Every structure is written in C-alpha cells, then in structure tokens.
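Sample A.
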Amino acid sequence: MLFLLLLMPQQENPKDLQAVVETTSGTFILQFHADDAPNHVRKFLELARQGFYNGTSFHTMLAHGVVQGGDPETRNPNARNKYGSGGFDMGLKREALTLPLKAGTVVATTLPGKPDGAGSQFFICLSDQLQLNGQYTPFAYVVDGMDVLDKISMTPVDDNKTAKDRIEIKNITIRRTPPPVPTPYSEETIEQLKQFQVVMETSKGKIVIDLMPDKAPNHVRHFLQLTGSGAYDKSAVHRIAPGFVIQAGDLNTRKEPLTFDMRKYVTTIKAELNDVKHQAGIVSMARGEALDSGATSFFIVLGDQPALDGVYTVFGKVVEGMDVVSKISAVPNDNEKPLEPVDIYSMRVVRKN
C-alpha cells in the first residue's frame, strides 16, 4: 500500500504555479488567485497547456491602461472584424468579486449582459481600474514583465480600437514558482555595500560617489536600487544654489517616462540622521518639510553647511569629480533653476577596484 502511494503523483496546487507568457514583444509572468477564483484558474491552466493561446494576438488596448487577448478568432489575421467575439461561454461563473482590479491584475472578459459567460479571453490592468471592481473576475496577477505589457498597450489601434499590428502569444509555459529573487542590494552586508560606488556621467563631466552604509544603510540600499534600475538616467540637475548645494534626482526631469521596474523603487524613506558633517562633497538626501519624506532627490554640498547637520541624511561623498561639481555650480541660474541644461546621461553602480 505504501509503495502504491509513493507511485501516485502529488496533486498539483495552482498556488504553486506560474505561467510564463512568451509574446512577440517579450515575456511576462503570471501567478494565480487560486483560492479566490479556482475555476477560472483551472480553465486558464487547462487552455494554456493545450496550446490554446499560441498564435492568438492582443487585439484591444488602451495605452498605459489595459491590454486584452485570449480570443481564438485572432489566430486569423484576415478576420479582424471578428476580433473580440470568440472564446466565451465556457461554463465559468463569476468569482473573486471582492478583489480590486489594480495594476497588474489579470481579469476574465465577459460580454455585456452575460456576467457568467467568461472563457478564454482576458484583459490585464496596467493601471488601477477600480471603477470595474465587482463586475469581472480577477484570477491572476503579473509578477514580472509589466514593462513588456506597457509596451504592448501602446500598439496603434484603428477607429474600432482594434490593434493595427499583431502582438502574438508564442507560447505559455506552466511551471512551479521558483524561489523569490532578492531585491537588489537588500541582502549585502555593510562591508559588502562599502565596495560599491556610483558613477554619474553628466554633460559637465564624471562624478564618482563613495557610499556610507555604516552611517545610513537604508539610504545606501535605496540609492543603489534607484541607480541600478536606471531611474536617474536621462535626468538633469534641477537646482543650483552657488556656495550651498547642487541638487539632482528629481525624476520629473527625465527625458523618458519611468518604467514599471523603476517605479517600484520610487518610495519615501525614513530618515537616518547621523554625525557626518555637511562639508564640501557630501551627498545627502533631499526631503520636504516632513522628516521622513525623502524619496529620490539628493544634493551635493559645495561648502561647510553646519545648519544641515543632523537635519538631513548623509549617505555618500564625492571622491572624484569635485571639479565637475564646481563647473555645474557655476552654471547661470534663475532663482536656483539652471538657465542651461545640466544633463545626467547615466548613473551606474560599479565596484571599487
């Protein structure tokens, strides 16, 4: 009896599974609301394993809002007038109606007047669609690849809101969920963090910043995460206060929108006030009136500023490029706003030699 039990396959738990969706525009990964929407999850897994979605295309989209796919009619490039009409009525009643339709949620599509007529079609929320709460079944959520989906959402559409270009699902692989990947720079020790520097490539030259994780470990991790994500790339120095500070890190100065991967690091951070003096070359986190309101903006001190000591969080120091900092500080300004662009081409994390 024991031998027979050992031979029986373990029952699959959809909570332990992921769907890796390969498209002609890139790959995204889903996990499932298996407890809340078991029937919808089961049907999606069944169809995916059959290859049902292979060759279908995303047929409807709203830029940065939603993308819709899963219609078998979209396999035929010559049947555009039928796109959006197939794959319904697979015996699925609504589930999980209390879950919010927030960004990243995968939702079963139904026809007007047929709330229990879902099937293979789905839409993915790229921004919160809370006005639709309670009307559709959310059965999965995106855990990786939101930038791919955002790119798909910007596909041109015709007057009927149908995609002009084909973005196809090439394959869906169902796999066990791998162990979580640690957030970058979240597990290094203080000594390991000391081995990193940040290099700023600006239109005035290169600035190299040493970090002080022994003084402000969370700020250092935060700064490295933002830098590593590329959030600071193609931004600009937005404040020049001669003799006082230059300031950068305002992501509104970016030439391109933040990606979803960048946005997850744009959070406020609790102050880590320390005993480091605000002297020339010190890098400190800017903030608003609230002590813990620092987020992305930082400043480089141009000279001794004792009034800032113990008020702002020091987390780094310029070790190369103070001549570049001086060049930036000499740029003409109007009420501390630069009168000519001071571009930050890139910021990158490097290891010390």
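Sample B.
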Amino acid sequence: MIRYCITFTALILLSINITSAQADSSRLQSDITLLSTFGTSNDQSFWLTHNRWGIFDDASANGLFLGSATYNINKDKTFSLGAGLEVVARTSANSKVYIQQGYIESKLGFVHLEVGRKQSIHGIDLGELSSGSVAISNNTIPIPSIVVSVPEFTEIPYTFGLLEFKGHFTHGWLDDSRFVTEAYFHNKSFHVQLGGDFWINGYWGINHTAIWGGNSPIHGELPSSLSDFLRVVVAKEGADGSPANEVNALGFHSGVWDWGIKASFGQAKAHLYYQHIFTDGSGMRYRNKFDGLWGARVENPFQQKYITEILYEFIYTLHQSGPGLSDPNPNDQPWFCDKPNCGYPYGGRDNYYNNGMYRSGHSYLGMSLGSPFFMTQHQLDKVDPSIQTYSSVHFVSNRNIVHHFGVKGEVLPTLSYRFMTSYARYFGTYNGLNMGTLWGSIDPSVDSEEYFFNPDQRQWYFMLESSWQPKQNLPLSLNLTFAADKGDLFNSLGFLAGITWTIL
C-alpha cells in the first residue's frame, strides 16, 4: 500500500507543479518518445533490451510510446523541489501500460531525498559504455523506494579539502511476482575519496544490498520488524525463531567492495576500477580471490571529437570461494571422499545472485538487478526450455568470464555514436556442475559432461547506436541502433529505431 501512496503523491505534486508552470515554463521539461525494436527472431538481441531500465520486452518485437515530464523549483539553489512522471505504453508479446517513473524529490544543501520510482545510479557511476555495476545497474525498472543520499563527493570538514565522501541509503518494496512475495529491498553505499583538487584521486567504498522480509511458501511470514530491519542493515544473523537458513545473516545479502583511481591529463581523464563481488562473509574477506568487475575508462583519449571515450571491462566470477560447502553439516563426508567436505575449506560456493530462501535472487521483474551477464532461467528457456540446470534458483549461470569493450564519439556536431561488443563464456553454477549433488567434488557416479554448461557456452554480443539531431536548435532527435548476437546460445540480428521530441 505504501508504494502506491508514494506514486499517487508524485502524480498529485506533478499536476500541481505543471499548472503553476504556466508562469515559468523554464521549470518544466516534457518529452515524447516513440521506439520500436524488431529483428530476425522473436527474441530481441541482447544489447537492445539490457541496461535500458527494463522498458523492452526481450521475447518479441516492441512498439513503445513514452511520455515524460519533470518540474523543478530552484533546481540550482541550496534548497530545491522537483517531481517527475514517465508513462510507457508498450505493444509486444507482453503488452502493458505502466508508470516507468513517478517520484518527488528535494535537496537541502548536499543532501538529497527521492520518493517513488526514479531512474538513478547510486554509488559509482561507470558511464553509458559500461556493462553495468555488479551491485546495482540500470538493467531493470526502478524499484519503488525512499532514498536519502549525498550523490556527489563532498568535502569532509577539517581535512584541508583532501578527503571527500558520498553515499546513499534506500528502503524499497519489491512489488513483482517473486518466490517470496512482498519482500523488502535494502541498498546503501558509502565511499571516500582522497586527493581533492589534485590531478589524481583514489576512492574506496562499499555498495551493499539485501532482500528481506516477505512471505515464503515454505516458511510463512519472514521476520520484518524494526529490530529485524536493523539486523539487515548491519548484516547480522536472525534472532531466535528465524528460519535455519537465516542463521548467518537475516535476509539475502550481496554487494561489492569498490576500488578506483581517477586521473586527469589535460583534457583527457582516466578511470581504473575494481568491484569485488561478495554475497557472504567469505566474499567480504576476499576468500573468493579476484572475482568481480575490472575496468579501465578513458575520456578524450585523442583530444578530438571522433572518439570521446574508450572503455574495457573484464568480469571474472569462477572462483566463488571454492567448490566446497558453505557450512558444515552432519553428513558432509560422501562415500567417494576420504575427508569431510572432500577436503575443501568451508565457506565456498558463494553462488552469486542466488539464495536458497529468496529463490528469485538478485532480480526484479525477472531481470538481473546487477550485471546483465548473469544468465537467468528465463534467458536459458529461450534456447530450450527442457535444458536441465539441476537447480531451483533464478540464475542458472553465475560462473562467467566476460570481456566487454566500448567506444563512443561524434561524427558531426549533430551526429554521435556508441559501439559496444562483449564476449561471454558461461560456466553455469557449482550446483549444476555437480549435477545437483551437495559436494564440492564431483560425484564419480554421475556424468558431468551431461551438464549443459560443461563445456562452457560461448557468446558474442554487438551493438552500434547512432543519435542524430537534425539541427542543433531543433528539439528533435532520432536514434537508430543495430545489434547482433552470435554464438552457442543466441544468433540474431536486431534493430531499434526511435524519435524523441522535447515539447518544452
């Protein structure tokens, strides 16, 4: 009920502001966008539908109408108020009309407040060439939330301008159809940056998410009191009476440790970064080795308009603290092993994005909340619904190796482009590799070669996007995108065409 009140409040405030905008239209911006995707198969090409805030149906061609309006008072002042609304009408295999964004926001000094659905990137923004943070990206529609944030690096007093911080705190409602219904969403980040106005800066921080509470078809109503919320915030174990699989931490937790260096060389800027993924205590202690996202990004590398940014990212998630069991259990010495847990240390099989209780995992409306390269059951079903994955969780391949490259620039002052290509190797999950058995070592009585992801499945994804504004002062822009998938899983060509008209 609260989430619907949030959206309704946003609509009321927006209507009031639009009425008053007749006296000052500069406070109001309104856009109308028409989009269409189509291709050589019903399944749309990867980069046509991923990292686009979840507006497209990936199972068929799309025809979309987007109408949006934002209104701001004192936008560049110490105190400001604003509201936004975006409505999407989509014709596809899953046609629908819905509110993509509906929010109110305010700012007081360096502190911001957002209430509702808003397309916002919190934490470290890696730019539009990135494949997306492995914590929270723009791969799905925004979750209805209340967010308090310091969105920009802000000087910490008495540090002579050398130390800055930023962060955010989110409480949200997962209103999609999930295995555990009516669950809550918690997300927060905190980063510090050293260097101030120097030509080089280093930063470090954390971006932590948790899915908690709700109603489980197995365990019934899960802990959701205020004291339980505080346990979730600090990733503390459940209180007495909590389900057994919430002994280590109440709820389903995941996130990243963020490390990065930024440097300026004249007009050129470089950004090196590493996001260390974790989903339990072993990952937070770096027992999962170097799993995560590694990236390098350079802006204005050649001091000319034709290439304005280059990016390379490498994703590696094979280790997962090893193949051993996460926790000891009474019968963890199978007949084919001489030692308990087959000699592996406990704390392995981190099983990124998956959770035995919250089986919808790190997803919203079926799509990954983080990196789009973590393959869901829905994506695999497009290859063949009968493929056996030996798992009941949402993500069927979280052991991946990905190389991702992007470049963008301007051909003309009115014509820009963005090119991305990705090469992904999908190794499935540890559970799948062991054919559903519990042990770190593969049971010799089963044939692991029957597992679909053994050997790994290899896939290429391509995209070339262009944006053209016929005249620099004309409030009209055209978009044309070509995409292609080629590999062991998906093979298709796809196109996206769009036009946006800014009314005010």
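B remarks: Residues 1-23 have pLDDT under 50 and may be disordered. Helices lie at 2-20, 46-49, 226-233, 281-284, 377-381, 430-433.
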